[in-house]
Structure formats: C-alpha cells, structure tokens
Amino acid sequence: MIKISADQITTKLGSPYYLIIGNDPYLQHYAQTQLKTSFKQLGFNEQLTFNIDNQTDWSTIFDSCQEMNLFSDNTLIFLDFGEGSINANITTKLNTLSEMLTAEIVLIISLNKITKANENAQWYKRLSDKLVVVSCNTPDEMQLPKWVTNHLQQKQMQIEPQAIELLCYYYEGNLLALTQIIEQLKLLFPNQTITYDQIENNINDSAIFTPYHWIDAMVSHKTKRATHIMQQLKMNEFEPLILLRVIQRELILLINLKKGLSTKSFKQIFDEYKIWQNKRPMYTAYLNRFDIKDLFNTLNQLTEIEISFKHDSQLQIWDALSALTLQFMGIK
C-alpha cells in the first residue's frame, strides 16, 4: 500500500486500485479527474460511476464485472460514497466485489473518511498490496503555505514569500477559490515574480472556517486569527447560538481540566479527557496562563450574553461575541 497526498497523484498513476479519502471538494475533484483522464489515455475507455448508499443495486455492479471478464474490455469502476460511510452491509458487498476484480478492471473508491473496521475488512486487505490511498483533506493553517508553494511550482509561478502568507490568510479552507485566484494572477502578471502589493490589490477574503478553528485560535492565544475567523463566521451568517454552545462546551472542558490538575498531572488529565496529542501543547499553555476563576468569569459572561439574546433579538450579538472572544484570551 502507498499513501500519498492529492498533489502527488501524478507520480503514482497506473495502479489498479485507488482509495480517495478526504472531505475537500477541490482535492477530491482534482484526484478523480487526474485518475479518470490518465486511465482513459491507457485505454480504459469504459468508465462506470456508481453512487453508493444503502439503496445501491450492487447486482448491477457485479454484472458489469462479469461482462468485463467475458469481453475483456479495459474498464474503470468508480464508487462514489459522497458523504456516506461504509457500513456492515456495504462491507459485505465490497468483499464480494474484490473477489471479482481482474487485470482489466481498475477500481477507484471515493470516501470522506475510513475507519479501523474498514481497514480490517477482507476487501481492504485483498486490495492493499496494489492500493494507493490518496489523502484529500483540506490543508490546515500550518500545512497550507507548503501546499501553496508546491502548487505554484506546478504552475511555474514565482510569488514573494510574504504574498504567499497573504494568500493563505485570505483563502484558508477554500482551495477552490485559492486555485482560481492563483490562475487569475498568472494571467494578470505573466513571466514575473508577483509581489505582495499586486496580490493585495486583486484578492477578496474568501477563507472558510468552522467554529472549531475559532476555538483553537482562542486557546492558542492567536488574537488576529481568532478575530479574522469571527468576521468570516459573521459574514457567512453562522448561527450565533451555535457558537455560544460550542464555546460553552470548551469552557466546561477547560474548567474540568483545571480542576483535575489539582490532583493529577497534565498527561493523566489529558488522557482522561482524550485530548489529542497535537492539541496538548496549546491546552497546557492556556491552562498555565489562566486560573479557574478566570474561566468561570468567562462562562458567566457567556451565560449573560445568551440570556440577553434570547430576551432581546435586537442585541448586537456579534459585538458581544467579539468581546467574549477577547475575554476568553484574557484581553480586556
């Protein structure tokens, strides 16, 4: 089995089995398009797409395999799970399908995520020797600059380092818009190193964030980033009450962690609450910076905002959320 990122897919063309995993629509589309085009050039002109859910008629898929075996046509089968997952019933069907594959059949499976149970299934083990797993998860804040740099190299473009930071700031979480603006910049400024000012005059704030990006920015004490995320959530008309509920859960977690530290080590308390390893440094720093009284004060402020908003829908809720964001980070 080989594991690669989507931007490496052109280096691993020709394998009979591909598993495209991830929820980024741009990367999914890119990986699928590259594979379908490549196999068409290799003579796999028959390309069958099946959208997989609990109502899928698998007999049609099995019949297609048997017909291919009979006529020896090179055929690509693409199984698109969309937002769905692989349950026990579908696992049984995939087990059967994996037994029917021949050298004339290429199998591509597109899936949001894969579980340990999936990896232990017969079909996965049967394909694993020749399987290429393509990661299509959206690059995070730390990964994005390198992704942009690689993409620019593929486009044979030169952009000032500070300008790359600017692109990442305004297009994080939105690779489709990011690649479109890069293409536009290439047309506007051909055969030259593109400057910070040139990019600044041609971009829009198109970053896409979730409430969990907001939480991580606040816990990490990244004031500028937390404020930027708040602005984008407001612009995208995210429901304020959901944000209040998300930050409430986070504050309760932090209070419980802080209480636990009175008798346990950081490792013990993080293990107990199943804090991911990569998030432990930022939680450690936050808990060292604030005492439990600060956390309760922020929680009380959140409660007051929620009560006020429920009694007065005209309340300037986004102003209140901005103030709460700063209080969470200890900024008065």
* Share of helix, binned: 55-70%
Query: What is the top-level CATH class of the largest domain?
Result: Alpha Beta
List unreliable stretches of 5+ residues. none
- Quick one: how many beta strands? 8
Order of helices and strands: EEHEHEHEHHEHEHHEHHHHHHHH
Averaged pLDDT: 92
| Cα-based radius of gyration, to the nearest Å | 25 Å
- Helix count, per DSSP? 16
As for the number of domains, it is 3
Largest sheet: 6 strands, parallel
Shape field: globular
Provide the CATH topology of the largest domain: Rossmann fold
Could you state the CATH homologous superfamily of the largest domain? P-loop containing nucleotide triphosphate hydrolases
Corresponding CATH architecture of the largest domain: 3-Layer(aba) Sandwich
Derived structural class: alpha/beta
Give the N-terminus to C-terminus distance in angstroms.
53 Å
Strand content: 5-15%
Domain DNA polymerase III subunit delta C-terminal: 211-327
Domain DNA polymerase III delta N-terminal: 18-137
GO molecular function, one term: DNA binding
GO biological process, one term: DNA-templated DNA replication
Brief sketch in words of this structure:
With 332 residues, the chain is an alpha/beta fold. It has 16 helices and eight strands. Helix 2 links the parallel strand 3 (46-51) and strand 4.
